[in-house]
Write a structure and sequence with these properties.
Layout lengths: L10 H6 L20 H20 L9 E5 L6 H11 L8 E6 L3 H8 L5 H5 L3 E4 L29 E6 L8 E6 L2 E7 L5 E5 L7 H4 L2 H4 L3 E5 L1 H13 L4 E10 L2 H5 L21 E2 H10 L3 E6 L5 E8 L10 H5 L4 H13 L5 H10 L4 H6 L1 H5 L7 H17 L8 H18 L13
Parallel strand pairs: 1-2, 1-4, 2-3, 4-9, 9-10
Antiparallel strand pairs: 5-6, 5-8, 6-7, 9-12, 11-12
Helix pairs in contact: 2-3, 13-16, 16-17
Length: about 450
């Protein structure tokens, strides 16, 4: 059996239970938003490594599509960048089909109207679906394969699931362990929390039994929605799946004891991403391992995101051979911290700015991070330096992914592009005057 039914929540029980926090509170286009170009590049490299391993081990049929399921596609930038990166690197055969699981019909319409996504939708490489996760009823989040336009039968090839802020955007339960007793959070009439003892020992509560004695007076979550979705995807793919997820949360019991999953923690980020319940990756990892999966997790610090990698395969399968390359990729927070470090630099020469932009593959966010140094320094009088700056600016502009509606960020980027471009146009070309000797 692919999934362990005794480790799945009882949907009927879940629907009847009110929850104070059923999912992410941030706007749909914020959940899963790309924070650095390299994040999406690493996702593309993960898909490529998985595909190459599958082809080499005959786990992937090159005549069938490889599905990439994005549980939190945000504004669509990740899909655009991943498909753009794979278009020049993916091996022949095994076409990539990317499914962006929209939160609702409004999110679907927003992505469908984006001019950079329309060509991908037209050629069939990108599918936009808002019925796939059943988010309109967060406590019955079983994917419907027919509504999602995936084959109703088990797909031929294993699938890749991307879930950056995708776990926290699905329904989660909130619990606490106090004096050896498990409590469950309910909503009271004033919108607060009412903690009630739970006597359930079956289903998903088996995952929480370990906390009864090991944790005292600490709140913790359980990602019910994510486990339902992943279970259905495992059934669809015949038990073969790679998950690459990142979210704010905790990956071990020590963090949970310190209150890492407490919804009222005072150090929660103010950027909107942390408005959702934090993810209990410790329990999710045990859920994976109970089904024979290989799980790897990393976190740069307690306040950063947990990077969660899981590979499910059939007995004797070799899909795990992709793990050395996948685990060798940087943590998503590494890219964000590097951009923050660039913003904090006190003095950067034009030549250094250009080198940093090359090192960041022309990420428009790097251009923004260095903007105060670029706008206050001239590239120099050398023709070669000016031409390199013009080429880099054009490259950064081509890599910019505008939001589908006007935003302050897009306006700021447009202004930055125009300001830098005007400054370069005003520079002398340093070409010899053919009439200087007359």
């Amino acid at each position: 059996m692919v999934t362990g039914p005794d480790l799945l929540p009882d949907p009927e029980h879940d629907v009847a239970r009110p929850r104070p926090f059923g999912g992410g509170a941030c706007p749909a286009w914020m959940a899963g938003r790309v924070r650095a170009l390299r994040e999406a590049e690493d996702d593309a490299q993960t898909v490529l490594a998985f595909q190459l391993t599958g082809l080499a081990t005959h786990a992937i049929d090159p005549a069938e599509a490889v599905w990439v399921i994005d549980l939190a596609p945000g504004e669509g930038e990740r899909a655009w960048r991943v498909l753009k990166a794979l278009s020049g690197r993916a091996p022949r055969g095994a076409p990539i089909r990317y499914m962006a699981c929209c939160f609702d019909s409004a999110h679907h319409a927003r992505l469908a109207a984006h001019p950079l996504l329309k060509p991908l939708v037209s050629n069939g490489s990108l599918l936009l679906e808002h019925t796939f996760l059943g988010r309109s009823s967060p406590d019955s989040a079983f994917p419907d394969r027919q509504d999602a336009r995936m084959p109703a039968h088990i797909v031929r090839n294993p699938i890749v699931v991307l879930a950056h802020e995708g776990i926290s955007s699905l329904s989660q339960g909130l619990y606490a362990a106090r004096s050896g007793e498990l409590l469950e959070a309910w909503s009271d009439s004033r919108g607060g929390l009412d903690w009630r003892a739970t006597t359930r020992r079956d289903g998903v509560m088996r995952l929480l039994s370990t906390y009864r004695q090991s944790i005292d007076d600490a709140a913790f979550t359980l990602p019910h929605g994510a486990m339902r979705v992943l279970s259905a995807l495992l059934q669809t793919s015949g038990g073969r799946l790679l998950l690459r997820a990142s979210d704010l949360g905790a990956k071990d019991i020590a963090q949970i004891r310190r209150g890492a999953l407490d919804p009222e923690r005072s150090d929660a980020p103010a950027n909107g991403v942390g408005a959702a319940l934090r993810v209990n990756f410790e329990a999710l990892a045990r859920w994976h391992r109970a089904q024979g999966a290989s799980v790897h997790q990393s976190q740069r610090d307690d306040d950063g995101r947990v990077l969660h990698i899981a590979v499910h395969d059939l007995a004797g399968g070799r899909l795990q051979e992709c793990l050395p390359e996948v685990l060798g990729l940087p943590h998503p927070d590494d890219h964000v911290q590097l951009l923050l470090a660039m913003e904090a630099l006190s003095t950067v020469s034009p030549a250094q700015c250009l080198s940093l932009l090359h090192a960041q593959s022309g990420d428009p966010r790097a251009l923004r991070a260095l903007s105060r140094h670029i706008l206050h320094g001239a590239p120099g009088s050398a023709v070669a330096a000016q031409e390199q700056w013009r080429e880099m600016l054009a490259y950064c502009r081509a890599l910019h992914f505008p939001w589908s509606v006007s935003s302050d960020e897009d306006d700021a980027m447009s202004t930055l592009f125009e300001t830098v471009s005007s400054g370069l146009a005003a520079l002398p070309t340093n070409e010899p005057d053919q009439y200087s000797s007359i």
